[in-house]
Design a protein that fits this description.
The chain has 243 residues and is mainly α. Helix content is 93%, strand content 0%. The protein has two domains: 3-133, no CATH class; 178-236.
């Protein structure tokens, strides 16, 4: 077995071992999540995708090469007469065919388990996140339930306390509130009346000022007419003197 196929077999055994460990029932996904978050794995995660794709490409190349070899040696037909004449050649071809089939199975299973390993790790990580979220939600629900029970108990105590004090105090409180509201309404009415009186007074003053301005305008017009008449008479008197 050549070096590359020894490497494929090693990777295949390693994949089987890792998958068996990942499938152990007594190791929870949360523990795997803690293992995956170790600083060493965090540093390797940067190169993980590149390593994954590289190994995928190599395994696909080896699988295609093994498939080509299987087709090559399967197409060689040795008849019985030739096999009797040259038995060593027939055995050699069968040996090559067996090796190419073995390599095909090794590379195929290695490629398949590599994809399964990647998917298993992804599912474990998602399951761990889901379990963490579920635990957090369960804690919140329990806290909310406890708080609701506490508030309900306090509300029940308050109802009992109010029931013991009787309805007379509630009526007195309502009457006091109504009396206070009535006083506020009367105060607002008084303020509104004052505002209305002030507005009416301001309107009256504006009307008086308008009337005064009209009278002044008329007096001004009369004075201007008298001034023009006097100016005309003065001009006529000066014209007569010149003559």
């Amino acid at each position: 077995m050549t070096f590359q196929w020894m490497a494929v077999v090693t990777v295949l055994y390693g994949e089987i071992g890792v998958l068996l460990v990942l499938c152990l029932p007594f190791i929870s996904p949360l523990r795997w999540q803690k293992i995956f978050t170790i600083s060493l794995w965090s540093k390797m995660a940067v190169f993980w995708n590149k390593i994954f794709l590289t190994i995928i490409v190599l395994l696909i190349v080896l699988f295609l090469d093994a498939f080509r070899e299987v087709r090559k040696y399967s197409s060689v037909h040795v008849n019985e007469k030739a096999a009797n004449v040259n038995a060593n050649a027939f055995d050699h071809i069968q040996m090559k065919l067996f090796r190419s089939q073995r390599n095909l199975y090794l590379s195929g299973f290695c490629l398949f388990l590599w994809l399964v390993l990647r998917r298993t790790v992804t599912l474990l990580t998602q399951l761990a996140k889901g379990m963490t979220s579920h635990a957090a939600l369960e804690t919140q629900v329990n806290d909310a339930t406890e708080a609701a029970k506490k508030y309900m108990a306090e509300n029940e105590k308050l109802r009992e306390t109010l029931g013991e004090k009787g309805s007379s105090k509630r009526r007195e409180s309502a009457e006091a509130t109504n009396e206070k509201l009535k006083k506020e309404v009367e105060h607002l009415k008084a303020e509104l009346q004052k505002t209305s009186d002030a507005l009416q007074k301001a309107n009256n003053e504006v009307s008086a000022v308008k009337k005064q301005s009209e009278g002044l305008r008329r007096e001004y017009d009369n004075l201007m007419k008298e001034y023009e008449q006097l100016q005309d008479s003065l001009n006529k008197a000066e014209d007569k003197k010149e003559l």
